[in-house]
Amino acid sequence: MKKQIRNIILLSSACAVFTACGGGGGSSSSGGTSNLSAIVNQSDPTQFDNEPFFKYAWHLTSKNNNFSNDFNININSHINVKRAWDLTTGVYKVGSLKDQAVKVAVIDDNFDINHEDLKDNVIAYRNFDANPDDNNVLPQNGQYSHGTSVTSFIAASANQKGLVGVAPDVKLILIKQEYISDSRTIAAFEYAKSQGAKVINCSWGTANGPSQALSDKIQELKNEGINIVFASGNDNKDLDVASNDESELDSVIGVGSSNASNERSVYSNYGSKIDVLAPGGDLNSGKPGVLGAFVPNTETNTKDPITHNYNIDSNNYSFTQGTSFSAPITSGVIALMLSVNPKLNPDEIRTILIETADKIGSGTNYSDIFNDGTSSTFDRYNAYGKINAYKAVKRAKDQYVP
Amino acid sequence: MKNIFILIFCTSFIYAQDFYYEFGKKVEVKQGVKSKALSSLDDIQEYETLDGKKVKFKNEIILKCNTQRCEEDFKTLELKNIEKISKNFYLIKLDASKNIFEYSQRLHNLKSVEFAHPNFIKQRIYR
């Protein structure tokens, strides 16, 4: 009898083990949707200098090389992420998700999911232009891929190729959506949530701004702890004047652009609802844009002259400019913050970002005009300032209570 | 007298007849041109609001329910093509015989519905 009981116990235990090893649920990772856990081996930040084009990444760290000297790049124009990398590269350090990667979603036109600097970090992708949605997110032949460039600023891999993103160890959920109705946009956001995204990057806007349905959906996601980042736009426009832009929603982080002179980019939209700036470059200033992944295409013809002149010979990278790239840099910083303090809600994330931002710009007038409970001052053109990744991540870490 | 009636009759066509509610406000529209959607099966209607904004949509309404009862209310309005797209968000596809503005208003005025407006179609501006 004892032997039979022992055998039953052994058999039950074996069944439990095989059940637990049955996988993380969800479909195969070769398909567009996956719920596989994102446990990762963390990158070694001391090796990031070995990324071939890291020397051109003025937006990440200070540079003192031929490139920075040629263009007289302001030594403070970066977001100070190198010191942040000593704390985290995008893998949770604490909490129930420890050793798993933070998940970041990007909603954009299309994605080259086979790009050498993105493919290792993509865990899910979905095309919401098709109805029903499918897995085809690739750009068509000769088509510009805004989404590929945007995504690289968040999480280009640390793989000794090309460059490295702000949060090279996060995992990416890529959502293609170009031709949009409110219903499909809401479905796209819902998909991002269902895949576990804690940050959703939106480097776009619409002519009339968000509808009530979309505004409400975004508020709902914020209430559920998801951080949503919108680019402010590139028209040098005062958004306070008769505007209703997605980046102005109270439930999102609105991001404008700064340049290699450590000033607001001249094209960057501004106003009382924009929260922070992040590097987006300013090719018109005669200084470089920001270097990101690129897909050879017929729409933009050749790469810009700086890319060509600096022998970035691979077709896979190019300098570019726009608040489109300021937003993912900010999304990457938010992911780093969450990795050291996953308990932060979106309001706390925002408070830390604006309170740790660096005041930039000449002729500015930072003042405490909102009395909004934060300890930071605001300037209509430069918002609360340019994000400082190290200060933001350090503050997030220091505030963590298990 | 006859001329007055003719004047009133003609004037009634100058002002917008159609409207929907958004953010608690009445949005009146004038009809623009009908344009073909990406799919040749559906037409996109284009309108202009009185403040000059162009809006586009098919014969579809997006709404948010504030109670479960709204699904019962859909039945009383004889709405059949209903898709739940997210928690509390529904897409209602109207057949061609139903006027989108009339049904937007009727749905918006239901106590079980928080808001209802056309399912806008927008061009994304990449930045």
Task: Summarize this entry quickly.
By secondary structure, chain A is of the alpha/beta class. Helices cover 27% and strands 13% of the residues of chain A. Residues 12-16 and 36-41 of chain B have low confidence and may be disordered.
Structure description:
The complex is a heterodimer of chains A (402) and B (127). Helices cover 27% and strands 13% of the residues of chain A. Chain A has a 7-stranded parallel β-sheet with strand order 2-3-1-5-7-8-9, with helices on both faces. A two-stranded antiparallel sheet of chain A has the order 10-11. In chain A, helix 5 packs parallel to helix 6 and helix 9 packs across helix 10. Chain A is globular. The N terminus of chain A is likely disordered. In chain B, strands 1, 2, 3, 4, 5, 6 and 7 form a 7-stranded antiparallel β-sheet that branches. In chain B, strand 2 and strand 3 form a beta hairpin. Chain B is globular and about 50 Å long. Chain B starts with a helix and ends with a strand. Classes of the chains: A alpha/beta (402), B alpha+beta (127). The interface between A and B is medium-sized, with 34 and 30 residues. Strand 6 of chain A pairs antiparallel with strand 7 of chain B.
